[in-house]
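pinging the channel bc i need a second pair of eyes. not urgent but kinda urgent?? the chain im working w is below, pasted from the shared doc
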Amino acid sequence: MEQIGFESVRTNDIPLAEQVAAQISELIVEKRLTSEDKLPNEFELASMLNVGRGTIREAVKLLVARNVLIIRRGKGTYIAHHPGEISDPLGFAYFPDQLQLGFDLLEVRLNLEPWIARVAAERATDEEIAVMNQNCRTVEQDILSGKNHLPNDTEFHISIANCMHNLVAPKLIPIITYSVGLFGSLNGNTLLSETIVGHRAIADAISAHDPDQAEKSMRTHIEQNLDELKAIRQELLEST
């Protein structure tokens, strides 16, 4: 295994495992590793970074906890699908009023996602459009077969953000992903047919590189969710 040159300098002020975790992260970036790539084993990493295997294990544990690495039993350690992204980095689950949170998240999405869809329609490559359309079809199949579509619904929205070629936009995805899951739990997944139609309209507009229609379709999709939340709140008020 070749030696990797790291610019960072170790310091006694930071625990060794933390420093090694940072160096492994640098390796991932430097080598452009993805979720398809397996991390070198303990022996190789220990040799590359000139530390003991115990330190490597501690560093790997830190990176697994941060969703940078995942351990596949019997296969080894791989790069996470979305390195560094955790399911709820903003702590939304701890907000006491989840219904109000749903409204606030949709308010942000209403100002964010139509813009994302517009830029995606302007910049998407053929390969990115193919991934987006596959995600769209998967959501449709999940809904029609009675499966939980929310994980793939999230992937659909992520694939749109990836079409932007903007380094920051995908990092805003936790706002969208938590909102998708929360909305599904609040409304009991009642807008299933509307989801199919809405997603297809968005995907078709982006595929056609039509920014105006992409923005309009995304806005309509989110406004439908907002109207449904308003109906839920009204029902709760009437029942009290």
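so Residues 1-9 have pLDDT under 50 and may be disordered. and The radius of gyration is 21 Å. — does that match what u expected or am i reading it wrong
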